[in-house]
């Protein structure tokens, strides 16, 4: 895809700066960029180089792809990090010395990386997660008894965050190993909520293998083992399992099971009361709405009206994590394409890209829809061709 114009990039930087309530001098100082250069960039008179773009993105708390959509640095960084991740977890059950961070520093590093995962900022995860994960493994082996449960929880969260880049970038074997590490940490935590989260993430392996029936059975076992939903955290953990069970039931063409699990998820979302992030997973009424579309798309073209009816009366609020909003519009685009609404499908893909560029770029369904639109949809052909080139659908 042709690079964004300097004016487009500058406008995005300026808009993000204002949203973050930075003045130009503030941003220039924090990013270590000259004020005159920043002014020229925002005015579209100068295009930022990769290092400048990364520095601005870091301060503005976005992935660089959200400032320049054709930026390739994120992909290079992720692929460069994968071998290191593989090495870090090769012998996770073997003690390997003491962590380099104090427990509080490690907890902060893991929490920050979780925020990047929810925001689909994969380049930022890749830059730090191998070292963070290594420290989390060391901490589990060296923590005193009074800290052991917290150490295991941190390791499970770090492994899940590392899995986000492995799974999204098609490193399926590494993803499966990271999920095994997460489950190992969950066992050591003796925390049923961490075990429920691990079961939620483990579903990726069933999706990858197209083993939908056994995946549904595994999730239903996890629901049975989850704590009773007596408080919001427990209700959210169980509700997330029901949401994911509904989707995999849809892919197994089990409409009755899909609807049953969606019904349980709705009831638990009502009990929780409002959308939030619980143990690293978004859950609440908005997430359930998104999964209604996911289930409809999983059931295939015959259920397209179910997906479209949700989108007619509701759209994800901007407060939802970027990755979840992007996923909604990718799946909606698939339903719209099936329904012959090609113009709407293309618009949905563009909204998905605006929300989470790297998530959209790496999503196989987004690539599939874009490729089909390019072959059969002639309106706005030049713009669609550019999009298809950006996403790798040509």
Helix and strand arrangement:
Layout: H1 6-19, H2 24-31, H3 35-42, H4 50-60, H5 73-88, H6 103-118, H7 122-142, H8 148-168, H9 172-189, H10 192-209, H11 212-225, H12 232-251, H13 255-272, E1 276-278, E2 281-283, H14 285-299, H15 304-313, H16 322-338, H17 342-355, H18 357-362, H19 364-376, H20 381-391
Antiparallel strand pairs: 1-2
Helix pairs in contact: 2-4, 5-7, 6-7, 6-8, 7-8, 8-9, 8-10, 9-10, 10-11, 10-12, 11-12, 12-13, 12-14, 13-14, 14-15, 14-16, 15-16, 16-17, 16-19, 17-19, 19-20
Strand content: under 5%
Gap between N and C termini: 11 Å
Give the overall form.
globular
The number of distinct structural domains comes to 3
Overall pLDDT metric: 92
The helix-and-strand class reads mainly alpha
- Can you count the beta strands? 2
Largest sheet: 2 strands, antiparallel
| Order of helical and strand elements | HHHHHHHHHHHHHEEHHHHHHH
* Radius of gyration from the alpha-carbon trace, in angstroms: 21 Å
Low-confidence stretches: none
Number of helices: 20
Fraction of residues in H or I helices: over 70%
The largest beta-sheet arranges its strands as: 1-2
Describe the structure.
With 394 residues, the chain is mainly α. It has three domains: 1-71, lambda repressor-like DNA-binding domains (434 Repressor (Amino-terminal Domain)); 74-188; 191-299. The chain has 20 helices and two strands. A two-stranded antiparallel sheet has the order 1-2. Helix 10 (192-209) packs parallel to helix 12 (232-251) and helix 14 (285-299) runs antiparallel to helix 15.
